[in-house]
Amino acid sequence: MKNEMTGDDYPVEIVSLTKYYGNVTGIRDINFGVGRREIFGLIGPDGAGKTTLLRILATLILPDSGKALVEGLDAVRDFRKVRRIIGYMPGSFSLYGDLTVKENLNFFAAVFNTTIDENYHLISPIYSHIERFAGRRAADLSGGMKQKLALSCALVHHPRLLFLDEPNTGVDAVSRNQLWEMLFELRDSGITIIVSTPYMDEAQKCDRVALMQEGAIMTIDSPESIVDRYPGSLYQVRTSRMASLSEDLEALDDSASAHRFGDSVHFSIRDDKDILERTRRHLCDRNHSDIEIERIKPSIEDSFIKLMTGEAAQGE
Question: What is the mean pLDDT of the chain?
Fold first, then answer.
């Protein structure tokens, strides 16, 4: 699947990008462009290729084929220039644990020949949450504080683009929400953001997303458009025998999919005719009672599962 986006409006362009780790495919034939002042999400489970893609963009590893362009600069040939204009926050905490909060921030500012004071206006919405702990060792911070320090260090040189690899892994819900509020502010200030996440609910916060699986992109579009393309109808089902419900629903004629979601099963069928009556009769024959069936609007996670089964329509 290719998205041919070129020109000044697309500060990131990926063309036929492929990376192998021995016999294992990291990413294969990736093509897309990221719009200016866009929050672009890389969404998928572990092993989907999100980290590989971001590390190539951050000039940390080399692709085996294809190109990654950042503001028109080749991430391989022009890696030094690329590093001056990007901020990168890896998935694992990678700052200096023995240095204090302030010392870490001063160090990264010095690397880029700037100071905290020069770009304090940019990091203040984030840094203000941890500034009172400026003298604390980074290793002694909580998960949420480490996240905010890492983001401050990634922004201290005022980059044009920000690459975040699963920034919310291992942090509490409050810190997750705070991060997204900060990302919205950064986008509105003119920074283009690419963020990866395994959390499907975070996809809804992005302007556009790439849904990834096993090193490939299944579709790219706005979250709303992906959900709108969900084929057919989706039903939420609960019964007295939840343990066997998915399997029993899949045994129904014309069943398309049945997957457990929390305390219910999301169920889709190829032929909606008499669906409620047919489903109730089918489940009663398999000793289910207290049957509840409700038609619902698909979520981005429902759409992701559909794409994995090859049934959903692909985006541009």
Answer: 92
